[in-house]
Design brief:
The chain is an alpha/beta fold. 26% of the residues lie in helices and 24% in strands. The strands form four sheets. Strands 6, 7, 8, 9, 10, 11, 18 and 19 form an eight-stranded mixed β-sheet that branches. Helix 6 (212-224) packs across helix 7 and helix 6 crosses helix 12 (362-375). The radius of gyration is 22 Å and the shape is globular. Bound molecules: zinc ion (2 copies). The site of one zinc ion (ZN) has 9 residues, from helix 4.
């Protein structure tokens, strides 16, 4: 142990490791949280001493600045991966949490949209397709850690695993301090879907993939199981990262996309993300900027409505505006809001399907990464990330994200 520590200090970015048997004394005390896939995988853990120590930004309560902690030792269980981050982005849910709109188990390391490169591999660590990972490889990974064995995982809903852990959402615990994206490194645990991505792309294209882009893919997948997108009018409510990405993906699939957002700047952006027409939800009914006028221009009642704002009014209008046999996918309602009235008779007579989508399954993450790699030349995806702050300025970055200028604010370790 002392030898390992000494050799780890020989130079900047140096690290040393030693193997630990799986059942080493103290192992269970060092690792916490529900059991994950690694716990039954057997094999040896790897204890790492890093120099300089990885840093994580810890959040405790609204109004209180983040505090940096050093994490000199990381123990990788079989299947775990240590990733050095290149860029993180501030998701809307980070804003909601830090504002106190919703509760969170504190203290915790926020951040769950990020891209980085593999630094150290735990024994047997593999990508989601089963291929071996390589040190230096650039990767994104799922928001959730899942067991793969419980009834919920087996039903194809690993994001709701009975023992799920979520990056950027868990209370700080000894043994998994590097659990969120607002840090220099993330300790990616066995049971996470790890997806290798293009090593040459601008990291700003890839950081949002692990939440916003993959969730957009999941929302559209949910709609496509009910209605074919080709030729359909698709109504998108809310032009944040999810709404804009849904618009571009739906346009790629042959849909005629209508995007609704109260912000004129976001509507202008939506027009560049595949919307054939945009609308202002506050415009007078029948006026040029109204939703009714936009739908008329696009070709009539939508067969798909993707609600990505979380606004109860937007949820209600999604349900009201859908055409016969249409599907409403609710994906934006991830914070407490008043209930939405439901006209059950109207839902019945129009044969409406209402689906909720929260997070995503590994295939959506893979498809989201391929979308960004293949289509960043077709859609202005790079413009979704505006300001980039250093990790030490994380609070200012979250404040900028809350102010709502750019769709995403970036956080760069060491910047
Ligand atoms: Zn998110
Ligand atoms: Zn499970």
């Amino acid at each position: 142990m002392r030898d390992a520590a000494r050799s780890g200090r020989q130079g900047a970015r140096a690290w040393s490791s030693r193997r630990r048997p799986a059942a080493a004394a103290g192992e269970s005390a060092r690792r916490s949280g529900p059991p994950t896939a690694s716990d039954e995988a057997g094999g040896a853990s790897v204890e790492l001493r890093l120099d300089p120590s990885p840093t994580a930004m810890v959040w405790t309560e609204p109004g209180r600045p983040h505090e940096a902690i050093a994490v000199p030792t990381v123990v990788l269980a079989p299947g775990d991966v240590l990733v050095e981050l290149e860029l993180s982005t501030v998701c809307g849910s980070d804003v909601h949490t830090t504002r106190g709109d919703r509760t969170a188990p504190t203290p915790l390391v926020l951040g769950h949209e990020q891209v980085g490169r593999v630094v150290v591999l735990g024994e047997g660590a593999a990508a989601v397709d089963g291929s071996a990972l390589v040190v230096g490889q650039r990767v994104v990974w799922s928001l959730t850690v899942s067991c793969g064995r419980c009834a919920t995982c087996r039903r194809g809903l690993p994001q709701k695993c009975d023992s799920v852990l979520k990056y950027g959402h868990e209370r700080l615990v000894t043994g998994w301090e590097l659990s969120g994206g607002f840090a220099t490194h993330v300790h990616v645990r066995a049971g996470t879907a790890v997806v290798p991505v293009d090593g040459d792309l601008d990291p700003a294209l890839l950081a949002p993939v692990s939440c916003g882009t993959a969730t957009a893919r999941a929302a559209l997948d949910s709609a496509e199981r009910i209605v074919s997108l080709d030729g359909a009018v698709v109504l998108v409510l809310g032009a944040g990262l999810i709404g804009l990405t849904v618009a571009a993906m739906a346009a790629d699939a042959g849909a005629r996309v209508v995007v609704v957002d109260p912000d004129a700047g976001r509507r202008a952006l939506a027009a560049r993300f595949g919307a054939v027409v945009t609308a202002d939800p506050s415009a007078a009914p029948g006026s040029d900027d109204s939703v009714e006028h936009a739908l008329e221009t696009a070709g009539g009642a939508p067969l798909v409505a993707i609600e990505a704002s979380g606004s109860p009014k937007a949820v209600a209008s999604a349900l009201t505006l859908l055409g016969t046999g249409g599907v409403a996918v609710l994906v934006g309602s991830v914070f407490p809001a008043p209930p939405v009235p439901l006209d059950a008779e109207s839902i019945v007579r129009r044969l409406i399907t209402v689906r909720g989508v929260h997070n995503y399954a590994p295939r959506h993450l893979v498809e989201a990464a391929r979308f960004v790699e293949d289509r960043h030349g077709a859609w202005p995806l790079r413009e979704l990330v505006g300001d980039v702050v250093g990790l030490a300025d994380l609070d200012a970055g979250i404040a900028a994200a809350a102010a709502g200028g750019s769709v995403r604010v970036g956080v760069r370790p060491g910047a």
